[in-house]
Amino acid sequence: MRILLIEDDRKAARLLAKGLLEEGFVVDVAPTGEDGEEKATVNEYDVIVLENMFGDILSDLGAATVGGLGMAPSGDVGERWALFQRHRRG
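The structure assignment produced for this chain is given below.
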């Protein structure tokens, strides 16, 4: 599973990426939203993890971006993170 982690806090990004790598995930880190957008346009990701700055609004937009139907393939992880899983049609 390939994950895109968008995080501007270098320490947080390093710790999260390390934990995910240890669990066997392939992780790309982008320090800004612009870098994340660029990576997402040239690579295919199963999951995108980023700060949850706008709650459900961001979750809905992110889910729509990765092909989801609203909030089903996304979710808030605590108060700080939002996670988006690519919708698999099939």
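Interim note for the steering committee: The two ends are 18 Å apart (CA to CA). Residues 2-85 form one domain.
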